[in-house]
Amino acid sequence: MTDHTHTAASFDRDSTPWDLEDDCLHEECGIFGVVGMKSASASVALGLHALQHRGQEAVGITSFDGEEFFSHRGIGHVAHVFNNQDLFAHLPGKMASGHVRYATTGGSGLRNIQPLFADLAGGGFSIAHNGNISNAMTLKRDLVQKGSIFQSTSDTEVIIHLVATSRYPTLLDRFIDALRLVEGAYSLICMTPEGMIACRDPLGIRPLVIGRLGDGIIFASETVALDVIGAEFVREVEPGEMIQVSHDGKMVSHRPFGKPAARPCIFEHVYFSRPDSVMGGQSVYEVRKAIGKELAKESLAEADLVIPVPDSGVPAAIGYAQESGIPFELGIIRSHYVGRTFIQPGDGARHADVKRKHNANRALVEGKRIVLIDDSIVRGTTSLKIVQMMRDAGASEVHMRIASPPTEHSCFYGVDTPERNKLLAARMDLQAMTDFIQADSLAFVSIDGLYRAVGEQQRNNGCPQFCDACFSGEYPTRLTDLIEAGKGDDVKIPA
Ligand code: AMP
Q1: Short-list 145, 79, 24, CA closest to 419
Q2: What is the pLDDT of residue 346?
Q3: C or N: which end of the chain has fewer Cβ atoms within 10 Å?
Q4: Whether residue 320 sits in one domain with residue 254
């Protein structure tokens, strides 16, 4: 058994004066891990920096030097928490993994910042998770009844307890045994004294890719993080695949869950991934442009200018402009010193942020009929403000076009969306939404248009090629916690 003297907690430093409690289990995250590389923790920090868009609230890195695990975690951006080169001296070793995290309104606690770490019977075990476990509460209740003591309110911690209490002899078998009980979405990077284990849930809902740099093996949520450290993209971790990497770089692939039809998240293409990533073999940027083209074919507006809501609407607006022949112009200028609007907790902060973040390019917009393009409408806050901003700047007509179908359903798989009753499209029909955002017209791309843009001829209605539950309400897994809470009446889930 590995001698483990520095627990993950022993190096914890809270980077900010506050420490908020988090009782919500929803998370949106990015993960990154390397094995067999010098200064592994510094590479992880670089990789996480490229994944910052996936979570801006907290960050953690854990490393292993062949004997001990070390960890540093804090609230804030990667550049803020890892602001000093000397920190990496406290994270020694050739294996390291890290996590950027976004927690919903309600905040987060330092104790929920990943990678989570535990000393198990066979040695240290660290885990970084992107996704959301849809039966975490139910599993936690059972575990607590049997005596487990939880350190965090993160859904990820149930995996640690399930591994700890499994009766199988090897750690790998205990891990597989644990994951058989888990439902929902998980891309995981785990570290043990023997090496790294990376895996994706059987449906591959959340992404995870493999890269190589010299003798080092890398796992990352998105290819952009490989680019940033100069690593070459090898392939995606397959849905349901579990890959063990030893310290000498030997990789062994396991398929403990068979090969069910994959259902990767389509919202990664719409919004979440960076446009310079490649996902499912497709350039996210090109897919977004293709969505814009579909949108123009389906809902052409008579207008003088196509204007994106920056940055998320830019590629789709380029596609819309190319297809329609209407000139593309930057009618809204974005300040790059404000974070993602949606991510700010509380409606008040969100409203103020939209104003600080975007400003009308009045000289361009005045007297023009414009088509505004954004990737999605969630609560409607952004669209309402932006339409108003365009009118205040003198636009004569404002037509809103959205590069995704109406977001009518909550996500339980790690893309944080608010409760259903806060989603504009769940509360209103198209006309009411148009009136709410005060646009002259509003249209969303159809679900078939979206599928065409991701390279499918059509959506396979019996068994869709993607998880599109936020648009269709068809969830690919059971949602045990939701049902146990008596809130599952209007969801469509597999029998
Ligand atoms: P809202 O103002 O609530 O309608 O949010 C819509 C804006 O938030 C859009 O401009 C999107 O770019 C962005 N957005 C959509 N979904 C998410 C998400 N899950 N996390 C963060 N931002 C999002």
Answers
A1: 24
A2: 57
A3: C
A4: no
